[in-house]
């Protein structure tokens, strides 16, 4: 009988350690998400022409959120590659965000966005953000 108690106690200790590890993992994940910042692209002016310089002086991290606010009848937001950013072109079939209040979570490294309405990107409606 003493052996059975010992086994039960050992199992309980293992469960307690697993539960503690799970609680610590949740706390760490919650802390990382709490540190994410939310940025409105273009600040008060929103997503518009000449926003290419908007990121200057800001420090972005992977997990930060960009909010694109704009008139959905006149603009959109298309995530593109570096080549698409440079050439102001979205690849065929690219998914355009078009709600007028779009939220994009930054991934580590370079993140590029353009407005794909004709002439808008060429007029400065594009932004490149690098997240650490």
Automatic annotation (TrEMBL):
Family matches, as PROSITE patterns: COPPER_BLUE, PHYTOCYANIN
Superkingdom classification of source: Eukaryota
Record's signal peptide: 1-34
GO cellular component, one term: plasma membrane
Keyword field: Copper, Disulfide bond, Metal-binding, Signal
UniProt-recorded Gene Ontology molecular function terms: electron transfer activity; metal ion binding
Pfam families referenced in this protein's UniProt entry, alphabetically: Cu_bind_like
Entries under InterPro entries matching the protein: BlueCu_1_BS, Cupredoxin, Phytocyanin-like, Phytocyanin_dom, Plantacyanin
Domain Phytocyanin: 37-132
Protein name as catalogued: Plantacyanin
Organism field: Zea mays
Lineage of the organism: Eukaryota, Viridiplantae, Streptophyta, Embryophyta, Tracheophyta
Gene that this sequence comes from: LOC100280893
């Amino acid at each position: 009988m003493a052996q059975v108690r010992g086994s039960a106690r050992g199992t309980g200790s293992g469960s307690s350690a697993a539960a503690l590890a799970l609680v610590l993992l949740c706390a760490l994940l919650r802390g990382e998400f709490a540190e994410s910042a939310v940025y409105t692209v273009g600040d008060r002016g929103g997503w518009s022409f000449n926003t290419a310089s908007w990121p200057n002086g800001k420090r972005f991290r992977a997990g930060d959120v960009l909010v694109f606010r704009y008139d959905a009848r006149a603009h959109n937001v298309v995530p593109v590659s570096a080549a698409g950013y440079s050439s102001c072109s979205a690849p065929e079939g690219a998914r355009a965000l078009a709600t007028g209040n779009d939220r994009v979570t930054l991934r580590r490294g370079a993140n590029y966005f353009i407005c794909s309405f004709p002439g808008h990107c060429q007029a400065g409606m594009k932004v490149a953000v690098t997240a650490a």
